[in-house]
């Protein structure tokens, strides 16, 4: 626990460096601190939880502030919150608002939630819940952890045979390398390509193939493939834009391992070429 929480909440952290220093002070105050892969606050109604501002590999300061309030050190777990604890988390995070280099979405979401609770009696123990997720694919009996994981896997085509269907738009050069592998692997990323992006639906893949691959290289192809679901669940679904624009972010260093979890061949389901003239 921080020795001087009141002093921390009275400060103003106006620069990224000051925000980072504050985060380190919070982290140092938690013995054995291990940051989560994902975290969120949810509101439980009728046994169903609605999460506000789900964070995936982001928000290290809000994560450790929320952990400070909940007594969380690491791993996957959930904690009941009441209005007072939520208010304390807001107060501890508020000094970061002085730094305009960051948009502070958690602070906005938490304030909205606190205002929505009103000034009446604090909610019951199960009305608000803080959830931390460590490893996405690791078994956990906590229903709120399971609910947040399901949110992180949203929008996927998970098949009864234990595979997940994914798509990827490619240009002719990448397709040539896929063909050379016997359509069993995607080629390594180039040095300036740190992330491999499979997408979660054919419509999004088709749009990229038409609107990006064709202008860039004269042709675009939509590939479809299956991956072992247990492995695919290591990677949360990422929204790249509006509804239906979702993808996985696989670090380039993990692409070789990703290829070993492909089930069956990589198929080409559509082809688009630049119009003549």
What does this structure look like?
With 277 residues, this protein is an alpha+beta fold. The protein has 2 domains: 5-152, Alpha-Beta Plaits, CATH 3.30.70; 157-273, ADP-ribosylation fold (Alpha-Beta Barrel), CATH 3.20.170. It has helices at 5-9, 16-28, 60-70, 83-93, 105-117, 143-152, 172-180, 202-217, 229-232, 255-260, and strands at residues 38-45, 48-56, 77-81, 128-133, 157-158, 163-170, 195-196, 219-228, 238-239, 246-247, 250-251, 267-273. The strands form 4 sheets. The protein has a 4-stranded antiparallel beta sheet, sandwiched between helices. The chain has a 4-stranded antiparallel beta sheet with strand order 5-6-8-12. The chain has a two-stranded antiparallel ribbon with strand order 7-11. Strand 1 (38-45) and strand 2 (48-56) form a beta hairpin. The longest helix is centred in the C-terminal third of the chain and has 16 residues, at 202-217. It is elongated. Mean pLDDT is 91; it is low at 120-126.
> What is the number of beta strands?
12
CATH architecture of the largest domain: 2-Layer Sandwich
- Judged by helices, strands and strand pairing, the structural class is alpha+beta
Rg (CA only): 22 Å
Give the strand order, joined by hyphens, for the main sheet: 2-1-4-3
Quick one: biggest sheet? 4 strands, antiparallel
The average pLDDT value, as a whole number, equals 91
Number of helices: 10
- The span between the termini is 69 Å
CATH class of the largest domain: Alpha Beta
Number of domains: 2
Assembly type of the chains comes to single chain
Order of helices and strands: HHEEHEHHEHEEHEHEHEEEHE
Note poorly predicted spans.
Answer: 120-126
Residues in helices, as a percent range:
25-40%
CATH topology annotation of the largest domain: Alpha-Beta Plaits
